[in-house]
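User: Could you write out the 3D structure of this protein bound to S-adenosylmethionine? I've included everything you need below.
Assistant: Certainly. Input first, then the structure.
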Amino acid sequence: MTEIHNKLAPGRVKEVTSLSNPLVKDIKALALKKFRERENAFLAEGLKLVLDALEAGWTIKFFIFAKSGRGNAVVEKAAARTVAAGGTVLEVSEKVLSAITRKDNPQMVAGVFEQRYRPLKEIRPAAGDVYVALDRVRDPGNLGTIIRTIDAVGAKGVILIGDCTDPFSLETVRATMGSLFAVPLYRADEEAFLSWRKNFGGLVVGTHLKGSVDYRTVDYSTGPVLLMMGNEQKGLPDSLAEACDKLVRIPQAGQADSLNLAVATGVMLYEIRRSAFPITGEI
Ligand code: SAM
């Protein structure tokens, strides 16, 4: 168990109204990456996100709710699930919840969860599977939007290569709208990624402004697909571009140099799905 968790015996319910309470200070500190890493934890705000996370089996450390949530059946059920899972329930004042979530009008509920990455070697790609690898993605909003899109198209996971923005920052978690809890996350430095890629038995498609292939002309149905997207400023470096079976380009008209990374990822994912394994969700 981590330092924060040890401050209370698991399963206890505690009322907290003071901003100087050490637990409040520790949970607020999760705004900093350094502290998130040390605690292996992160904050998710809002009842929907907390319920999505519990439903998907993520480990909850703290369930935090405002006094206004008292008597709300869904809030009480989530609190009971937290206790059953060994977590701690904090009933807090609005002032404390505002401080924790850094918002003037916070949602009624927040949760502190354990971070979760999976090892690359766990990936067993099958026909129809799509994975997305992001090289040094920097923008938290882009990463959150991409994770949400990966979820929407039913792709199997995202691989973060090198020094990426933290998927567990408040901004990224917000932007995923709950998809963070549904999309497996993998991370690797470039060397480990390239060594794993050698055994990826499918089509590896990189996107590049200098790509010679129109993205609509590729047959994505030959097996699993690994889609590689470049960094916002620099694009894919040669070392990663050379590891791709194909380098594709999305044609553009007008003056823009390139598409936004998250938009380009969305365009690619829907094309891969359209041409190979159409999404059958209801319209
Ligand atoms: N200045 C960067 C460069 O030269 O590559 C621009 C990077 S762009 C903002 C971020 C990523 O989105 C690219 O690395 C690529 O993966 C993808 N991308 C954006 N527009 C694209 C396009 N028209 N065709 C293919 N990929 C594109």
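Residues 1-9 have pLDDT under 50 and may be disordered.
User: Perfect, thank you.
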